[in-house]
């Protein structure tokens, strides 16, 4: 068995100038409590906005849990089609802080959808001409992150709160919901929560009886982020509105 | 940084998830692993001014992709590390070498350790030089080097976290060391030549 080499800091034979440099590095800074609280709050907001929008994202349950919780497998999702969605979403979100990863499928709790195995995704390799990279073997999916947006964690929480107001107003006062949505667009033109916003826009269009617009927006979201739970939920909302309208027509 | 000897395959959050028998929510993942991600982002060279955004970015990406994470197949730290690596890559890509970062120790601590202004200046110059040298390395090489040399992790631990064979870790470490030795020699030579130009 091959052993690790000696660490330079513990190796008397190491170049003393290099060990001197390493000694200057000190220890990493601890996570400040204020930052911890801000980011934690932003994530809490994001999670609750998603939950209220009917999009529950959780880690993949175990096989046993799958069998117990999901006796009926409705369908599977083709991972091969995911690549096109990424480019579309990037186009839509432009500077949005996150991007869907190819080969990444988020779970929608209802209806039950079978979770395909995550496809290994290798991040793009940085290169230095004199240091060729080895080809890595990724075992777990590594979602790609797009260039970071300027949104701070407090801004993210604000975004989530504004969208929550939209969601709450849809059922009671759709015109107020539309006003808040317009405010959101003006305030966060490059917001990090584009998918959440798109789903609410679909719900709002349905609530206002503009089914064609809802359908177009759902399709746009699907094209942009095919495997996103938000895109699936948007399609569900449009489909169920069509069924409702169909039933009403038969009754009439 | 070494794992618990009694349970080398587990991390605290992982144990908690196994005990509860449920999949972790993003809030639980954050509570358990925010400090880990924060530390790793620094070791990957993310500047202090970008750390908060980077931390948030890692967990927003994790939230969006939570369904791909199987806690029974991989540790949360391994999964989050992969995301952090991509976030750090995007942040550090195109960063000028003069902006390179390895400023771990905050100023008050540094001042306390280095009494005189001259000593402090020298300390800062070393930090800057190390940051510049490391910035020239590909992110994977830099991270491997920092985790091994500064964080004290073993080759096996790094391999597990980065999801690569241990041979890859050793190869990256070897290449990173080789590069740093050469770069430092070049730097010393450049300094010598510059010094010779002074009348």
Question: What features would you highlight for this structure?
Answer:
heterodimer; A: mainly alpha; B: 199 residues; mainly alpha; 69% helix
Order of helices and strands of chain A: HHHHHHHHH
Distance from first to last alpha carbon of chain A: 79 Å
Rg of chain A, Cα atoms, Å: 23 Å
Major β-sheet profile of chain A: none
Instruction: Give the proportion of residues in helices of chain A.
Output: 40-55%
Instruction: Based on Cα principal axes, name the global outline of chain A.
Output: elongated
Major beta sheet of chain B, specifics? none
The termini of chain B sit apart by: 50 Å
Total DSSP helices of chain B: 9
Proportion of residues in β-strands of chain B? under 5%
- Average pLDDT of chain B works out at 78
The number of helical segments of chain A is: 9
Secondary-structure element sequence of chain B?
Answer: HHHHHHHHH
- In terms of DSSP E residues, the strand content of chain A is under 5%
Outline the low-pLDDT stretches of chain B. Answer: 1-21
Q: Biggest interface, and residues per chain?
A: A-B, 83 and 94 residues
- Which structural class best describes the helix and strand composition of chain A? mainly alpha
Q: What's the β-strand tally of chain A?
A: 0
The average pLDDT of chain A is 66
Explain what the structure shows:
The complex is a heterodimer of chains A (252) and B (199). With 252 residues, chain A is mainly α. Chain A contains 9 helices and no strands. In chain A, helix 6 runs antiparallel to helix 7, helix 7 (194-207) packs antiparallel against helix 8 (211-224) and helix 8 (211-224) packs antiparallel against helix 9 (229-251). Chain A is elongated, with a radius of gyration of 23 Å. The N and C termini of chain A lie far apart (79 Å). Chain B is mainly alpha-helical. Chain B has 9 helices and no strands. Chain B has helices at residues 12-20, 26-43, 48-64, 76-92, 107-113, 117-135, 139-149, 155-162, 166-197. In chain B, helix 2 crosses helix 4. Chain B is elongated and about 70 Å long. Chain B starts with 11 loop residues before the first helix and ends with a helix. Classes of the chains: A mainly alpha (252), B mainly alpha (199). The interface between A and B is large, with 83 and 94 residues.
